[in-house]
Records
---
Amino acid sequence: MLAELKYWLSDFLPYSIESWAGLLGYYNLKLWPFSLLLIPLCVAVFWSSSQQPLNKKRIALWLLAICWLWAGVIFIRLNFVTLNWAASYVFFLFILQALFLFCYPLTTRFKRSLNYQKNSVIQYGAMVLALIAFPCIQFFSGYQIHQLGWFALTPDSTALVTLAVLGRMRLLTLSLILIPLLWGILVLAHAWPLGDLAGMFLLPLSVLFLLLHKLNFR
Amino acid sequence: MTISRRQLLQYSSGIALQSLALPLFASETPALKTIPSTGEKIPSMGMGTWITFNVGDNTELRDPRCQVLSRFFELGGRMVDSSPMYGSAEDVLGYCEEKKSAPDNYFRTTKVWTSSDSEGRTQIDNSYQLWKTNQFGLYQVHNLVNWKNHLPYLQELKAQGKIRYVGISTSHGRRHGDLANIMETQEIDFVQLTYNLEDREVEEKLLPLAADRGIGVVVNRPFRRGGLFDRLEGTPLPDWAQSIGCKNMAQIMLKFIISHPAVTCAIPATSQLAHLEENMAAQHGPMPDPQLRTEMINWFNQT
């Protein structure tokens, strides 16, 4: 009988999908209308990532670093922590990723890798797709409009767009993609017991974007 | 906004049911259990808050929880159990208390859950603030974490009148050997453990030991987090259900638990008013005798 008594993944999640979606909605409403600033931010990230001068490319990564800081500190540490105490540990991953994104443009490896960059329709398309893919999946899986997770505001979309931008800049180095992929695994482990269909798509989508860029550069 | 005929019927039947239900519960005395260490009587149906009350700061989700809490007390409930491990649940309970959804003297039950002594004291102070109270009915060491240091501190608080009872909790059938050892050697008022139609290991040692040592028993995971409903899906109510006033599977599961002589209180968690009312009804009416309890186990094992 004792053997039947086990901890399941769901036993570590102290909240329901209703609470999770409610948190997203509450967070988005608190930020509105300042979240409209995301539009120029997205334009700035995409534009700077496609420019040739090195300084402008650095700006793309530094903007991404700010997005990771925001998602980590404001969403995870200050909001998600109300549902899940473990968030107070997870947010360090976001700080670390922000640090990587900030420091990497200062390395010589950054300069070298950019020599091989090429622009293509697939690259641009992938970035736009990454921007809308996750909120769209959330919407069609039952989330309400105000509960959708957007790039820079929430971690899931931020991880996906980061991979797309890094792929676009041909910066798929392990130090930069490890944490976004790890986040995809954590989200899967959280989404599966919650029955959160959108969350289950994050890791496959992340891998898909990486493959897309790999194929496009051959 | 227009109201359809169906909505009108649903609404009016809801009111009718409510007006019927309240006097029904109010006129019947629920099954009261005795807390062994003091002889105090307490209703055998409490309420847990794992997952269901962890809704963050969102008032759209908090307010319905306050309604559930309010209804719980209307139906004769007293013990509400939570933990710092349950995210915002303690904060939501404090919010509901501010909104007058709870009486002043209800049986507040929480836990300390950290391996650090100093953090444990901070956590305890924090729980008093979150619940907005000066006294807890029961304070437990959660999952036996650092019990050797937390328990003496909880006893100190009990001596100061800030806690009425102290206890140790576990769940999922873990660390039963250690729990038995604590029950045999420490002065505690309560244990909290998992017991349901499927997880019955505690019948062998822990429940008899609790009865022997005069320790109250709070039962968590009465439905195995809904797993028992999944297992019994499609199974018709057995013939004997009516003889103990059970109208659904939840009541069968709960009556099985609270009819054990060593059990003081079960703490099913819910965020649904309808489920709450089903749960609370289980503490009314006849309880299964030992013979029927055996039949319940056989029936469950065959499903």
---
Amino acid sequence: MNAIEMKSITKRFGPLVANDHIDFDLQKGEIHALLGENGAGKTTLMRILYGLYHADSGQILVDGSPVHITSPKDAIGWGIGMVSQHFTLVSPLTVAENVVLGYNKGYIYRPQEVIQNVTKAANQFGIDVEPSAIIRHLSVGERQRVEILKALYHNAKVLIMDEPTAVLVPQEVDILFQTLERLRKDGLSVIFISHKLYEVMTICDRITVLRDGKKIGTVLKNDTSERELARMMVGRETFGVYRQGEQKAGNPLLRIENITAVDKKGLTALKNVSLNVYEGEVLGIAGVSGNGQSELTQVLSGTLKPASGKIFIGDKEITNASPSEITRAGVGRIPEDRHAGVVGELTVAENLALESIEKFTRRSTLDKRLILKNAEQLISEYQIKARPTDPIRTLSGGNMQKVILARALSPEPRVVIASQPTRGLDVGATEYVRTKLLEQRNRGAAVLLLSEDLEEVMSLSDRIAVIYEGQIVGIVPGTEATEEQLGLMMTGARQEVKQHG
Amino acid sequence: MDTFIVGLIAATLRVATPLIYGTLGELYSERSGVLNLGIEGTMFFGAFVGFAAADATGSLWLGVLAALLGGMLAGLLMAFFSVRLGVNQHVSGLGITLLLTAVSLFFFRLIYGEPRIPPSIRSFDQLQPFGNLPIIGPITTQYALTYISFLIIPLAWWVLYRTNVGLNIRAVGENPEAADAAGVNVYRVRSYALMIGGGLMAVGGAFLSLAQLGAFTYGIIAGRGWVCIALIIFANWQPAKVLWGALLFGGVFALQLRLQSTGLNLPYETFLALPYVVTIIALAIAGRNATGPAAVLKAYKRE
């Protein structure tokens, strides 16, 4: 019998049909992948199952009987738990408090008793967390385990995991997979939302593919291949971006010398970082988030003053230069948080003009006509699906990122600094961004790529530097790097002595 | 000199009383994620409703009860706008202050007309648990509502940290999305918190009209609600620290009253400003690293 059956689920957001008559079923004790690009409707479908959205039409059956789920509380009552992509944990509270939140009986709250109960549950399910720890002090992997424990504590028989590996380093992914595998043996059913093919092929029994809000099909893992899944997912055979050949290293265009910097909390975020990025190469920086990447980009962007050290663009020193001076020195930036890189209320055209506003100024006033003309040209050149006069906040993540790319790359900068350039983008937009970055490399720019996506770093970089606790712990050539080796370096387990360049 | 200090301490406790009620009320609102700028109006409303009810029924305690209920209604109204409808919290809070001030004055005129001198009633008697013992006697000669306010501080802590309602309040004030996903009804919890808070604020107002003054005047609250908003930052949103904030402000306030009568040759406004100046300085020092509940000012709406 099916643990969950969803019949002909339809959900509209205004004119957009997010789920179009989707059928989905989950057997007891299986790990079932829900595969699709961003915006395919995976998360929407699961939010309906978890009671966060209400379907416009369709039916949900739990253990064969139709149910009405109108809130997460209902869903929990039917034995459904969800671990979202963005954790739903209250960070100043303890692990135990988060686990029992909304589920504690009676009026009185007894912290000791709750910690005991949660400890018992954690041991029973084999989940390694400290119940009295404050969430704020935990790593991402630990927080995710708290989420799983929370669902199991609430007697979940079905666990929805929304892109659980997006935030994890490879070693944490292994732990997660082992945990899921063990829980499955104990009879748990898991819905595993993902857009990563190899993960789905590793852990799942069956795979349902969604595309543009429609169900494309459900296949058994043993009857399919990554290639077939890719085709179902994007509607064509091939995708992916790869570097073509090695390039001879030219002159160093970006030189970072012994940079040390202190973050907002007064802690040392960068320790003696030295890097050279040569013309015509992509230098990738791999690392778990929070190891100094943000501070490095801030220092290179002129928004954080380093405590010591020097930075050069070509022969020009830009240490302590203002952001606009750095732009004029020939640096194009793709910021970490694309929403912070644009002004949401301004139009696409205005955002495109923002970084070089002096070019669009005539006698101290803005030349609107020139701004619009510039926008129209870039919109067609970078295939942005928007009008110049649309407020930029109305754009999808992919189109917003294209606006930022167009703004940063159109002046043909000598140095490109790209932070998390494809985070949260779907396969199509990701491919586009990566192609554009490689174009920059091929025309001779020095590209510094900071990314938490190892696959991305590995497929784009000529050399890979690993950052850990504010230090560069090693540099390896892109052709020699393995995921395991980088993963170990990223978690501080191994120092790479080999230095290139 | 002894009588000066003893009198100062006794007065400090008296001045601190409405601030303790008001600040704890605001603390409950803010810990649930709602900045309640309706506090000034709610205290004024409490002062009026308490006075009118006591005057009509002849029972001061019925007056306090009426103020409590009135304040809870005011909190519910705030919840309707800021929680249910998701109106900007600054706007809805200031709106409620304006509304409740005007409503109070309207009914005041209906009932009492425009008297030349403010109407008064026989106010609460002070308790004298230690009779006329030196020092301890005069210090403990206080209103019952003052004693209650000091008992409410640990009670407020206990509710917040040792009951499930308190756990829910803390959760929705920090991360309503997480609380909602865990099955906590964010709207309901915030409404409860605002009602508890409103009730406390109104009792703070009623203390002024029923105990300290025994009368109702237009300027009875005189910005005490806004002082509470500052004290909550000073207290870093912790119930226990509310006491220190209220005592500091109360102490300086009581001190300036006494300094005025020493005949120092300064304009009396200088003395009047003193407690506010000290509050600002204390805030600047204590509030530097203060971080309030993360969800304050953000209306919660499910996507």
---
Amino acid sequence: MKRFLIFLATLLAALAILPGAQAAGGKLVLTGSSTVAPLALEIGKRFEAMNPGVRVDVQTGGSSRGVADAMNGLADIGLVSRALKPEETKTLTAHTLALDGVALIVHAGNPVRQLDDAQIKAIYTGQTRNWRAAGGADLPITVVNKAEGRSTLELFLHYTGLKNSQIRAQAVIGDNQQGIKTVAGNPGAIGYVSIGAAEYAVEHGVPIKLLPMAGVPATTGAVRSGRFPLSRPLNLVTRGAPSPLAARFIAFARSPAVRDLIEAQYFVPPPR
Amino acid sequence: MRRSSDSLLKPLTAALAGISALLLVGMLGFLLAESWPALAHGGWLRFASLDWYPLEGRFGLTAMCIATLAVAALATLLAAPLGLACALFARFQAPPALAAGFRGLLALMAGVPSVVYGFWGLTVLVPLLARWQPPGASLLAAGLVLALMILPTVALLAHAALAAVPRTLLDGAAALGLSRRATLLKVAVPAARRGIGGGVLLGLARALGETMAVLMVAGNVVQLPASVFDPVRVLTANIALEMAYATGTHRAGLFVSGLLLALLALGLAWFAARLEPRHA
């Protein structure tokens, strides 16, 4: 009994001390896009290992939070998975960390080789419901859309000019892997996921196919060269000149030392 | 020594029970506080609509609420008779060695993590359904996966309830010369009905609260299903899908989903408690 009470007291004491322990040492706060956050976290770990005493704290909350936090100083660096808007560039500076492309994917057995923008819109708004109307077999189309708040959805809506409420989906998914599995398991499905993740799946024999966009093949090479239309930069943004520590982190994150981390997350290192 | 630890037991258990109760109340309070920005703006009515487009300011939860109940009800309707049949078989019909093995299998099934059922559903069941009735991810797929998940709970509790039926009742039935079928269905099952009902309610509660498995197979489209082959989104999946990416009113709207779910679970608990007192 006594031992249990001591255990309880220790636990409470540990809980009380814990928040205080984080305050010491050089610390960087990064907040924003959930697409960039996992990558920033990995880079942060490597940065911490090379700079003892430094702590890199990464929090998600969307690109809008990244912009807002960098703007009002709540974060040292904002994580933003899009190009900055003209009015934002007046106060913020973007440092491109990597590029991300979104590709339309269909089942590998689907004979359709490409879709133009009007066809994509017609399929996603439910006007085209059968692959025959898009040059394919007589098979109902299963439209796979992303859940609201996802940055891939935002990019797709921006490209097609649609509102999410106009889309008539038969399945709504969360992450890329769920999207790839859903399309691989349904010969009539069409979805969109990060190109890196889709390429990786194709290399490992998953029965999906990447469709070209506006005639440009969906490859990481096309994303790197900037020719692929459905792509976006992943940015670290700062307000004015970054602090010395933040500047060191940004330089490290853009160096070849983290190239393997970028590729491990299916993103494309920017050309240098 | 013994006396002192006994005198400690009461305040200690009281304190721990008090903490549990406080945590529950605190959680409800937290849900209410986090949902407040959405509830205060525009009131309750905006949640009564069918459309869920939080980024466009539309927060209808009705379709998801109905889908949640439909999925849980379908799973329970499938699992209850199957579970009862499993229990009757294991308790009365199977040879002892087989019955023990069968119960072990059910216990094992009850311990499999839900994400495993979900993964099986996504890679096996949904493609099968898609070949028959596209898109495959649907109310039916979610109901089937959930039924499989709650089947062991229902079966094991029904088995325990049947095992607790007094021997004298069964002997009496045998003495009256009742057939095996009549003994089981007209004597044993009615005598154990409260325990069986409790197991079904527990299964229903688990079906209502299940997240990952449903998220993977239900299709997650916010709509009123016209048939069991239509994709639906349940309240738990709504939170899991969007919470990581939500800010502001969107986030508060998700907390309203959580609040609604908590109220559904409380309603179920209240219903179960109403069944209980007559038990003794």
---
Amino acid sequence: MIEQTENIAVEIHDLSVSYDRKPVLWGIDLTIPEGALVGIVGPNGAGKSTLIKSIMGLIPLNSGYARIFGKDLSEIRERLSYVPQRESVDWDFPTSVKEVVLMGRYKKIGLFKRPRKADLDATMSALESVGMQDFASRQISQLSGGQQQRVFLARALAQQADLYFMDEPFAGVDAATEKAIFNILLEMSQQGKTVVVVHHDLQSVKKYFDWLILLNLRLVASGKTENIFKKELLEEAYGGKLTLLTEVGDLIKKEEFPGREE
Amino acid sequence: METLIEFFTFKYPNIKYVLFGSILLAVSSAIVGCFTFLKKKALVGDVVSHAVLPGICLSFLFSSQVLKLPEKNPFILLFGAFVTGWLSIVVIDNVVKKTKLKEDTATGLSLSVFFGVGILLMTYIQKQGGSSQTGLDSFLFGKAASLVGDDLILFGFIAVFLIAVVILLFKEFKLVSFDSSFAQTIGYPVKALDLILTTLTVLAVVSGIQAVGVVLMAAMLITPAAAARFWTDNLQKMIYLAAGFGAFSGTIGAFISYVAPSMPTGPWIVMVVSLVAMASFFLAPKKGILFKVLKRKKIQKMILEENILKLFFQLGENENNFEQARSISNILEKRPFKLKKLNWALQKLKAQGYLTKENDLWKLTKEGYNKGKRVVKLHRLWEVYLTQYLRIAPDHVHDDAERIEHIITPELEKKLESLLNFPNKDPHESNIPY
């Protein structure tokens, strides 16, 4: 079941992606409404992170496109924000909390230029929104997992974007932090921002998200959570993998088979 | 002393060249090396420094056989070095992309192939004979004394260029070193920045080889950065420190080779910077080995002291008399401490006012009593916690509590008490004192 929407924030059309020749997303077609709090849910290896990475232009597409607010990615980067998985960076890097959050302002500062006073103000207010202002000068290796996640969130807030993609912001954080992060996401969504979150825990899906994307190598379902969070659809996403699909994918990789647009 | 003055007043113009040349190359490679180090590309420096050798040999052959130049021209040599150094990185990237080989294999492969070809060409050139090629083997292990005026001007330009680019692109390099996919999503030219950083690395290597040699050049990139990392958690300070370490080793290396003319400058620079690094590993606050050892010793002493006070409390508990003075053999009966350590700790506890001593008998003070009581309380509370919350059998909780009783902070103590709701008895039916 694929529900379309009127006021589109993201439109994905026939999007396919491969890793090392092996297809990991097959022909994704969906729309995401503006101002929604969106969950991307599916089993391990379903291509959830791959989907947002490919929308953000971090992975080359095999086919299809993603349009954001009706425009191409390169025209609209300033309204976009991406929060990578916490483990994707080295937290032993010699830098402070404040400096990491300041990176959220780098696009606005521009190449070759130094941060302005306003950028420092925006950094501090982003830190305050996630309750980390007291940690501003702390070295990042001294943070707990939940605090690291808040720092990444603050960096995203400092970007002052309209559309946010977050890769597992709730992974490995304690219950209190999870609640705090969720409240921030909720507030963002109430301010009309669109927030797309890769999520792992089915238990909290209904409470957290008003729009849901079920993924397992292909799009299983997409639409309002109340229409999508159904037993049959969840079983289709989590239950028996499409073994034929996986086998064909492996074969493409092994046989040096040309991709769709080669 | 006289030589020191001779050296630093530049009695001979050659000293100036060697000194400034050594400092320039050490500082600029240390600065660029900080980013190589943080991007975890330490081995790339090694590959590049080995891969410049075939470039030097080829451009030497080109200038002597095709252009028929009588002298080796530093500009042509360095250009050749730059090209093959660059090529070795392109080879690594492509081997990783196009084959199933992993990066470590590709790195090793690229290094040995380029260096092999370099040695081959060099042997060929040496067999050819001729006078001007003799300077060529100084590229292998370096010869700072061969730095002459023209070379120095060239290196000076390269060094200033490297430092200027790092200053200009500091923010950008920091971002791509820390989180390159984020940099890509905000539209920064990540590929171009990587390209520039690689080019800087190659340039740093190329400018250093004549003084330090291809074999040791990688150390000039990575060692100052690794040493500096031990002293600070701030990237800017780390770069200043690395540059300082570089300048220091450049100076000392040049000085040693001046004092002892048979000593080579390059290897000495590397020796000094390695010593600086070793000293950092040992002495740096917080991260250094010495700091950790001392901290462990301090904790061991604290545990011993707390255990003695605990023992006094337990003895008093048994006899229901906390005022009783006790002899050393009295204490050792109950728990076999090492005599020397026990004596030392008793003296210290007395000095701290937790114990008093009269006629070789020891007694708890009021404060000592409180401290001993607290340790006993924490021990028993922890045992309760383990049995209740971790469902560990009562006969298995003692050893763990022996350790944990010393680490619990007053904040954790409060939490533990309210979580367990001030129990009266531990799992072994001993009273918990409050």
